[in-house]
Write a structure and sequence with these properties.
GO terms for molecular function: SUMO activating enzyme activity. With 338 residues, the protein is α/β, with parallel strands linked by helices. It has helices spanning 6-11, 13-28, 39-51, 84-95, 113-116, 129-141, 230-234, 239-251, 258-271, 281-288, 295-314, and strands at 31-35, 55-59, 100-104, 121-125, 145-152, 155-161, 164-172, 187-197, 202-212, 323-327, 335-336.
Amino acid sequence: MSELSADELALYDRQLRVWGADGQNKIKNASILVINLNGVGTEIIKNLTLSGIGSIEILDPSVVTEDDLTTQFFLEESDLGKSKVEAVLPKIQDMNPRVQLTINSKELPIDDLEYFKKFKLIIANNLDAKLLQKLNNITRDLNISLYTTTTHGLYGYFFSDLILDISQFTKKKMPISRKLEKISSNQEIIQIETTHNKETNEFFEKFTLKSKFIKFEDCFHSKNLTKLTKRAKKNVSPLLSIFLALYELELNSIEINLDSLKTKSNEIQLNLGLNEITNLEIFEKILKQLNFEISPVAAILGGTLSQDVINYISKKEIPINNLLILDGDNFTMPIYEL
């Protein structure tokens, strides 16, 4: 693992105050693959490049269209018809020349395992359901962390499968001390050490957290939400089951329409231990905005995911486990552990 140079210490001065030299060094030595440079992908690339990620490869076989100009700030009218990744490469490199940036304008080589072994983490944006299923199986087999995102107009989500993460975190000691116990269905504190800063007379707890993650397709069989109270179940966003329904319908090559989406979504609600969706208007809203991107939504979702990636790599904060939903209608971003 290469250490930070004097120039890098100066360049990342503000970041070092947040996640420290050790965290920045972990960021410097990370290798990430970003699949599909849509609006969310553009925001992710910007944030990760500025953070000082060691190497990033951007894979996108598409060419620039007029729709891209509304959500991707690296592009301009003169780029229309050009390879998207070739058009953005120099502009991203200018943001931080220290990041090793490569582009790939070919289709995702889903059967080439050697290709994926180069990366510690993969971020897939709006990936076809069948490709996502194959990719998640590959990342599991190769022990590679995976984030996946999807947006539909005012709505979107990101899902994280970090497989198994055992990390240490240091926090100020609270009036009620932490215990060696499960703190949620997927997370458990397995070690605690209390320290004392004599200069400030502050006590800290260094604890080791074991976090288990699941594959995206295993969300359908999760029983975690069945443990919620009746009131909490009522507050679960219907977007959760709708997003899962869209994935399953596409995976099984079933036409996505109002009837199929309602039926599949409520079937998933039942499987997750939730009540039937009564707000029927939400189905029509989703269908009207299917696979459509809105710049502010892309910025918020991409920025939130980027911060979670930094938290995960730097080990400064606990990463989200495992599904975050962005509801642009209600201005909420609930997190569900499935």
